[in-house]
UniProtKB/TrEMBL annotation:
Organism (species): Tropicimonas isoalkanivorans
Protein's GO biological process: 'de novo' IMP biosynthetic process; cobalamin biosynthetic process
Entry's Gene Ontology cellular component terms: cytosol
Residues annotated as domain SAICAR synthetase/ADE2 N-terminal: 6-235
Catalytic reactions on record: 5-amino-1-(5-phospho-D-ribosyl)imidazole-4-carboxylate + L-aspartate + ATP = (2S)-2-[5-amino-1-(5-phospho-beta-D-ribosyl)imidazole-4-carboxamido]succinate + ADP + phosphate + 2 H(+)
GO MF assignments: ATP binding; phosphoribosylaminoimidazolesuccinocarboxamide synthase activity
EC number: 6.3.2.6
Signal peptide: none
Record-annotated membrane-spanning stretches: none
Top EC class, one word: ligase
Protein keywords: ATP-binding, Ligase, Nucleotide-binding, Purine biosynthesis
Name the UniProt record assigns to this protein: Phosphoribosylaminoimidazole-succinocarboxamide synthase
């Protein structure tokens, strides 16, 4: 097979040139990082699970008319996506206080918020992804007021869909992060949900026990991350048929 051109290698994924113009192949790695990559590990099987879970949510959103970059899954670790111009923002939606909002505002973790709260962070690792307001976003030209209105509407639709699906399998969607991209079609521009929707980018708590089923398991050393993600995939019925390969291949006599 001809070698593919690598477009970008991030902390959790690699982007390769796709088979047709305007497409990319997104490869999900097993690498886990937290605290702006200060904490790192390889979690066998994580990439396979995130590929499946992101496929599951993006397909559901596409079917509902919420546009995403997802075209199709190619194999265990790769999916075909539309190449987009990423808006340099992390769009966070919160339903329950946890993580940075609890720390900054002194709200106890687990406190339900009176309504979903949408926050924006400027995507810049060197700056530690600082929080920004709509004023900054418009003043610095990252997005227009119209774009922002559309982004908030998209984010809230994703929130309704994912939280509904999760609640159906006994999991609370505490918060999540998405990225939004622009697709140009002639003179027209469309905003679509990009990057990934997976337990790496969501906080998920078991609705009954409160057990964490997301990347906080890794951030806070609460147990085996792949087991937590496997539990989410199992409940959603999206486990790969032969399970997730972990560790080195073993010889069968
Ligand atoms: N459809 C898309 N088209 C182009 N770029 C995309 C698309 N979806 C996601 N990306 C970008 O691909 C990269 C995915 O890699 P990864 O998530 O590993 O990055 P990262 O280490 O988190 O770094 P970053 O801070 O850039 O997100 C991200 O930079 C993301 O913005
Ligand atoms: Mg990323």
């Amino acid at each position: 097979m001809a070698r593919r051109k690598k477009i970008y290698e991030g902390k959790a994924k690699i982007l390769y040139e796709g088979p047709e113009p305007g497409t990319l192949v997104q490869y999900f790695k097993d690498d886990a990082t937290a605290f702006n990559a200060e904490k790192k590990d390889v979690i066998e099987g994580k990439g396979v699970l995130n590929n499946r879970l992101s496929e599951f949510f993006m397909t559901g959103l596409n079917n509902l008319g919420v546009p995403t970059h997802f075209i199709k899954r190619l194999n265990m670790r790769e999916q075909l996506i539309r190449a987009v111009e990423i808006i340099p923002l992390e769009v966070v939606v919160r339903n329950i206080a946890a993580g940075s909002i609890s720390k900054r505002l002194g709200i106890e973790e687990g406190t339900p918020l009176p309504r979903p709260i949408v926050e924006f962070y400027y995507k810049d690792d060197a700056l530690g992804d600082p929080m920004v307001t709509e004023e900054h976003i418009i003043a610095f030209g990252w997005a227009s007021q119209q774009d922002l209105d559309d982004i908030v509407a998209l984010a809230l639709r994703v929130n309704d869909f994912v939280s509904g699906i999760m609640m159906g399998v006994g999991i609370k969607l505490v918060d999540f992060k998405i990225e939004i991209g622009r697709i140009w079609e002639g003179d027209y521009m469309r905003l679509v949900v990009a990057d990934e929707i997976s337990p790496d980018s969501c906080r998920l708590w078991d609705a009954h026990t409160g057990q964490k089923l997301d990347k906080d398991v890794f951030r806070r050393d609460l147990g085996n991350l792949a087991d937590a993600y496997t539990e989410v995939a199992r409940r959603l019925g999206v486990l790969p048929q032969n399970g997730v390969p972990r560790g080195k291949p073993t010889l069968i006599n």
